[in-house]
Each structure stands twice: as structure tokens, then as C-alpha cells.
Specification:
Elements (H helix, E strand, L loop, with lengths): L14 H20 L3 E2 L5 E3 H4 L4 H6 L3 E2 L11 H6 L2 H8 L2 E3 L4 H10 L8 E10 L11 E10 L5 H17 L4 E7 H10 L6 H8 L2 H15 L4 H15 L3 H8 L4 H15 L7 E3 L13 E7 L6 E8 L14 E7 H10 L13 E5 L2 H16 L4 E3 L6 H10 L4 E5 L1 H6 L1 E6 L5 E5 H8 L2
Parallel strand pairs: 1-5, 7-8, 12-13, 12-14
Antiparallel strand pairs: 2-4, 3-4, 5-6, 6-11, 7-9, 9-10, 10-11, 14-15, 15-16
Helix pairs in contact: 1-7, 7-13, 9-10, 11-12, 12-13
Length: about 450
Amino acid sequence: MDKPALPKGTRDFGPVVMARRNYLTGVIRQVFERFGFQPLETPAMENLSTLLGKYGEEGDQLLFRILDNGDFLKDVPDDVFALRDARKLSQYIAGKGLRYDLTVPFARYVVMNRSDIPMPFRRYQIQPVWRADRPQKGRYREFYQCDADVVGTDSLLCETEIVLMIDEVFGKLGLKDYAIKINHRDILNHIARATGAAGRENDLFVALDKLDKIGEEGVREELSQRGFATSVADKLFDFIRTGAAPNGLTQLSKDLPESRGLNELQQVFAMLRLAGNDLTHAQFDVSLARGLTYYTGCIFEVKISNVAVGSVCGGGRYDNLTQAFGSKEKLSGVGISFGIDRIYDALAELNLFPSQVQSSVKVLVCHMDEGTFRFGLQVVQQLRQAGVASELYPDITKLRKQLDYANRRQIPFAAVIGPDEMSRGTVALKNLTTGEQETLTTEKLIEKLKP
């Protein structure tokens, strides 16, 4: 019999990892709710008609498709079956797929429930997504996203608050060296027209979006393969160098005077300063493209320095997404997605997880025999009723074995009950970190350990 194995690009999460992940998502959830966002969940699978065409050609290829139930081959035409072409065949045998992100399902939800939603609608969502990508460090086929979106307003306050939320989340996590890159699709569209690439903006942006990975020469090579003239690449990188210079926004305003995107970014940076943000981390990056086709306004991407995990957050404004589902009402939305798995890897690499999140149990109640075990059951229940996460060792065994278990579980305290302690109605509380020990009544034990 073959040994059990996981599908490539997926992982198990043991108790220690889950404690850290719960800490991480808890910090993000707390910030989301403080900014007025409400929780939402959507199904793991969506109709392919909901997903296809929302992420561009490359995104469509990364969708996991789900086989239809029953005799799914009976309606496949013989000529299609004979081609042995998986893409064409999937049109007949797969009508659903695993969600690629949380934004498109959110837009679908808004369209379906529009009459019941007060606008503007602020929601956050923490759920797994799936992409048929090539697994590598920091890139998985199943991973979690934490999204926060606002739909139903054009206000640039939303973009401003995205930056404020990112700074607050990263500050609470202890992250100090990171960059929030900001650009605008309108600026890119004006650059495309100025370089002679009008009508082929998407091809241009898909290549430009890889600049951090393959460098300028790699982007030039890809542009050439996509049929762009050398002059287009030359003009494109002239704009990128101008935008990267000090006061790049001001300089580009002279070259692209009709760009509303430049004006909007200047307003966002002004509001950030008004809100007390010193712009230590937020920075304009004209080369930021974001390959997804639905962004129409500001776009964001966050990278943590000194860790090899790629971007850890991304998002932007999408004015037309709900219309793709047949909505006659144009609802503008803007949002950010935190990549939980990559942020986790960064925190682990930088040793930023607090030690107290390793175990949810605060005290292990230990015993010596059947009588002290029964007394311990009463003690552990009193601790739990007082809100203290506690555990009674289940087997009657040597004390050393019980303490070894507590240390392996990283439980900080052990409440030891021997015959003498039981007769006096006390416990010997041992701090497993410092080695200090004291004798306490049950009431004093609860008072010392309760949250």
C-alpha cells in the first residue's frame, strides 16, 4: 500500500502552526472590524461562468475545474472527444470551479443581494482560495486570503484607509521594513497610449507586471515576443525612470497632463498626511501594473524587505466588476487582499511570532493517584469556568511524564496535586519557564491565572 501523501501545493497545519495562524488572522480581523468592515463567507466553488473572463487569459488557465456529477461524458460530441484537447473538453464536462480569489465571489454576492445591502458596503472575508500554479517557496495551490473591500462609493477615502489598515496590521505584527507600492491604472493607460501601445494595454501590463521577477531585459524580451516594437519598450522605460525619480508624480504630471490617475494619487497622499501618516512605507511606483484585468483605478502591492516571499498584499479599485454579472447599476469598489501564507512565512523567518501564541492551554493539572485525579477534575473545571484554558492529564502515571508533556506542549504552568495538597485543598503551582513554585488554594490559583 502506498504511503499517504498530500497533493502538491497543499499543506497540513498542526496545532503550533494553527495557533500562530489564528494569532495572525486575529490581528487582521481586529483591524478590519475597527475600520467598520463586516464578515462574509462564500462557497468554495463557483459556477465557471462566474469565474471565467475576470482574471485575464493567464488567470483563466489557473482555475481548478470540478467535474460534473453523473455521466459527464455523455453529451461530449465525438469530434471534440477525439481531439483529446483538455481545454475544449472541459467546456462540456466541468461547469464549476474552485474560487481563484475572494473579490469575484464578493462581486457576485453584491449583485445577487443588492436590494438588501446598505451602500457603501464594507466587508471582510478570510477563506482559502485555489490556483493551479506551479508550487514553490511562498506560492501554494491552496492558500488563504484576507480581503477587505468597500463597494458603492467613489471616495478616495477608501484608498487612503487601505494604506492606514496595512500600516496598522503590520505595526501590530512587529513588521517594520516593508513597502506599500501604489499606482493607478489610468496612469498606465496614458503611458500605453503615449508609447504607441493603445489597444494592447493588457499585453503591455502583463509583461510589465513581471519587472520585479525578470528585470528590465526580461520585460523587453517578453514585449518583443508579444510583438511590441523596440521603440515601445524604450518609451515605456523612459516613463518608469521618470516616475522613479524624486517627485515622480509631479514630473509625470508634466508628461501626462490629462491623467486623472495622477491627480487621484496626489489626493490620496494628501489625505494620508492629513490622517497623520508620515508616508514611511507608502510610495508611488509607476512600474506597478497588477496583471488582473478588472482594476480601473488605484492599485496596491506590498512587499516585506529581507524575506524571499514575494508580495504579501495586493488590491485596487475595480469600477466595472459588478457589471460583468449583468448588473445595470455601476458600483465602484476598492479592496485589499492579505496573503496569509506569505505573511506567516515572513513572520516565521523574522522570528516575530510571540512565544505565548504557541499553546492555547495555560495550565496542566497534574496528579499522583486515583484520588488526586478526581480532585484534579474538580480543579480543572473550576479553572475553565473562570475562563482559564486548562487541561487535566488523562492518565495516572509518573509526574515526570506529565511535566514532560506540558513542556512539549509549551504549557507555561503545571498545577501539581499530591495527597498533601488534596488534604489541604491546595495545589503546587509550578512555573515551567522560570522553575518557581508556590502553594495556592484553588481560589488563589484562579485569581493568579485568570485572563
